[in-house]
Amino acid sequence: MPLGAAGPGGRGQLPELDRAAEPGLAGGGVATLVVPTAFLGSYVARNFEDDILAALAQAGAPVSRLIFAPQARAVAAAPVTAAPAPALPPEAPEGESTRLDPRLTFDRFVVGKSNELAHAAARRVAEGHTGFNPLFLHGGVGLGKTHLMQAIAQEMRARQPQARVLYLSAEQFMIRFVSALRDRRMMDFKQAFRAVDVLMVDDIQFIAGKDSTQEEFFHTFNALVDQGKQIVLTADRSPVEITSLEERVTSRLQSGLVVQVNPADYELRLGVLQSKLASARAADPSLKIADGVLEFLAARITSNLRVLEGALTRLCAQGNLVGREITLDLARDCLGDVLRHSDRKVSIEEIQRKVAEHYHIRLADLVGPKRLRSFARPRQVAMYLAKTMTSRSLPDIGRRFGGRDHTTVIHGVRKIEELKVSDAQIADDLDLLRRALEA
């Protein structure tokens, strides 16, 4: 018994009943009605259930209880003409993702230590495994989060052409929500977003502080999860670090798999450059680049991968336009502004703050007099980083750590140099902290 969409305004005209389907759907005092979405079924049940029961009784089919079944779970025993699912907004045609860059695929994503977990989780989701729901990727600018999002969307579209995959930014979600409110088309908005198979929202932190948008996203999130639909989200920080998010929204965002995409290390940066150069040479076989240029760029440009790729693009354009080999001298001349920006000096205060955050201790305890191991080891790590990442003298570093003597700094630096060889955890901590500070 297919059920058309009921209007949102009060108790209007009842949906027309398909009498041919009644014998197969009504029996034992129970009638099952096919609805496009679970949300629409709940709405009709709240507003029209009594009227439908009365109409069935008047038509000679006394029924005591109604079951509203979404199309995917509809009873197949009787011939049913399924009601069409609500159409997505014009920006997202049925069965397609929007704003997808064909270059952003899994094949062109370079995997390294800093992003291997995010890549593996994205692959699993794209293959149809829904154990990670939602999948929440977070990290700084230019680290590959959007690349992974678009790769998931394109892989899903290739595997399941009929799947309704909707990819958009949080800003686009908010704009459509506000437009629906203004045009009094909230039911269309709700049905459209609840009818997708996969919802992907980029930069979700932008809904923070926007109460009405948060509330609608929360209900959309719940409706899709209840239907077993996949959700993928990205942000520039973890859910608990996004201020002005409602507690219930934060809790929902943490209910799946939260993965941090860390700043790229030297090996990953070099791998990204090699991959991009291979694509450039495929388009222009005459492109010449001297040995050591890629290594130079990977070592000097550490801010993010987007800036790194842009630098190589500029070099390739320069070499192509002037017909010259790309040498180290040409790279220094052409990328002077980028290199100067990448040479930002790290301060001891920044190092102390990052180390305290990493080890979850107070900054006052890091630089204070307490000699507990839980404070002493992070303090030595901070001293080591201050010695290796700044040009400050040992006495100056000691003064920044609560007025300690330079011999204390020397001892701390030597201790960390020994531990980073024998203690894998210390080595990982140093690597992560250095990359975070360089970024």
UniProtKB/TrEMBL annotation:
Region annotated Domain I, interacts with DnaA modulators, chain positions: 1-77
Stored InterPro entries: AAA+_ATPase, Chromosome_initiator_DnaA, Chromosome_initiator_DnaA-like, Chromosome_initiator_DnaA_CS, DnaA_C, DnaA_dom, P-loop_NTPase, Trp_repressor/repl_initiator
CDD domains, per the entry: AAA, Bac_DnaA_C
Location(s) in or outside the cell: Cytoplasm
Region (Disordered) residue spans: 1-20
Coiled coil: none
rRNA processing in keyword set: no
UniProt superkingdom: Bacteria
Cross-referenced Pfam families: Bac_DnaA (PF00308), Bac_DnaA_C (PF08299)
GO process terms (BP): DNA replication initiation; regulation of DNA replication
Similarity comment text for this entry: Belongs to the DnaA family.
HAMAP family linked: DnaA_bact
Notes on the domains: Domain I is involved in oligomerization and binding regulators, domain II is flexibile and of varying length in different bacteria, domain III forms the AAA+ region, while domain IV binds dsDNA.
PANTHER family hit by this protein: CHROMOSOMAL REPLICATION INITIATOR PROTEIN DNAA (PTHR30050:SF2)
Function: Plays an essential role in the initiation and regulation of chromosomal replication. ATP-DnaA binds to the origin of replication (oriC) to initiate formation of the DNA replication initiation complex once per cell cycle. Binds the DnaA box (a 9 base pair repeat at the origin) and separates the double-stranded (ds)DNA. Forms a right-handed helical filament on oriC DNA; dsDNA binds to the exterior of the filament while single-stranded (ss)DNA is stabiized in the filament's interior.
Protein name: Chromosomal replication initiator protein DnaA
Organism the protein comes from: Rubellimicrobium mesophilum DSM 19309
